[in-house]
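ZP: hey, is the pyridoxal-5'-phosphate complex queued? I don't see it on the tracker
AM: it wasn't, my bad. submitting now with these inputs:
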Amino acid sequence: MKGKFPVDKFKELKTPFYYYDTELLRKTLRIMNEECARYDGFNIHYAVKANANPKILNIIYQSGLGADCVSGGEIQAAINAGFPANKIVYAGVGKSDWEINLGLEKEISCFNVESIEELKIINELAAKKNKTANVAFRINPNVGAHTHANITTGLAENKFGIAMNDLEEVMNIGHSLSNIHVTGLHFHIGSQILDMNDFKALCNRINELQDKLERQRVCVDSINVGGGLGIDYKHPNKVCIADFKSYFSTFHKHLRLRPGQQVHFELGRSVVAPCGSLITQVLYIKQGVSKQFCIVDAGMTDLIRPALYQAYHKIENITSEEQMETYDVVGPICESSDVFAKACDLNFCKRGDLIAIRSAGAYGEIMASQYNCRSLPCGYITEEL
Ligand SMILES: *Cc1c(COP(=O)(O)O)cnc(C)c1O
């Protein structure tokens, strides 16, 4: 089974481009919101870094989510798309002064602070503006995740977060600073996580930390468990919505909350990955010594995930029903890593055929670059075609 695409419309557009199936996006948002609403105090912030296309951001904002940002540019993009500042949280190991100032001016709901030094700077900058900054401490929980090494973030060796042993000290400093209001704890263990036991391990770690804080008579208003829920890249036509039911129920079952405590989730990939495809055109078929290459007009500049993380994306020839053949699907960029897939079975390809690289809605368009002086790919949504 192949995905369904408005192929005739595609033929009028300049390739490569991203196509977002907004019917699927809206359905995903609806199911996600329904599963989340089963539990009191659960809230979702969309992780803007997964896809900041203004048309996509606008649809997500309309579904009622908050925004999780990791830079000043993302805070601005979220505000431009309509997200209210009091639903914006801001994380990042290296926040510049202008970015902190922007967050303070807009009065965002929370800075997720990753070091003592940063905490002191936020306090100083807030004092200059006569404001109080809400902060949560991003704790490195030293919980591994069964995913690609480049996308685990919660191990002690990763650069992210404050070490668990420093939690007591950082809490004390936080409470002593006059322009800081400590509101919560923040965690994020990685991305593309499909084993719910990884999230269960995170819950257990959070429970231990909360018990420890309780002994110091500290209780925070909110627990932010980050994002990371994975999707099924192999079967985009069969399993097109992430398993939100298991995800939220895992946290409900294993996280021991204190009365009135809010839980925040920061989902990116699972919200937008399935609805996006990179559409590209076959330029040439080249017979190599032991294989044939399908050379397309999209490259790693348009979608870097295969080159960066050896990520798998399902690829389909959406204009051919001919017999299957095996190809290495490669782009035109002057890098040997500019390969979308090796030994990939596709319906017979010829010059001009349209190829869809599926599940590319997250960490696709937003990571595009202009290397080789290429232009950035456009992104179209269903309603525009
Ligand atoms: C990247 C990131 C997310 C989103 O991760 P997904 O795997 O896309 O859900 C959430 N929170 C933080 C702090 C992040 O850096």
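AM: back. The first strand starts at residue 17 and ends at 20.
ZP: great, adding it to the tracker
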